[in-house]
Structure formats: C-alpha cells, structure tokens
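Appendix B. Chain record.
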Amino acid sequence: MQAFTVVIERDPESGWLVGEVVELPGCYTQAPDLPSLERNIREAILAYLKTLEVEEPLPTFVGTWRVEVAV
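Structure tokens predicted for this chain:
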C-alpha cells in the first residue's frame, strides 16, 4: 500500500471540490462533496498508476506554504 498527498481546493465557478495528487503530476479529479471526491481520487490514482511507464521514483511530498504579499 502506498500513501499519496491530495491538495483540495474549491472551484469558484462551480463550487465543486477539486483534488490533485501532489506526487502524480496531472492526476486530479473533482466532486461536489468530500466522500465523492475521495472515491474519485482513489479511482484517478489507480488509473494513473496503471498507465505509468516511468520507472523513476515518484517525488516525495515535503509540505505547503501559505505566503502573503502586498498587492
């Protein structure tokens, strides 16, 4: 079993949740609620891994920063 980091944001236009897997570039999905998003992201991860041909190690998630700047 392998763990993945999912960043979740709310789409401002649709109001849906969008989840992106940090360690798998381009692996993302959306859903109207968290239980649906979890189900969808698990499916997206499995599909991504089945098509993965690169034998290089996957990146390791380190963390996130929230940076404020004056505009």
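Further analysis of this model is presented in Appendix C.
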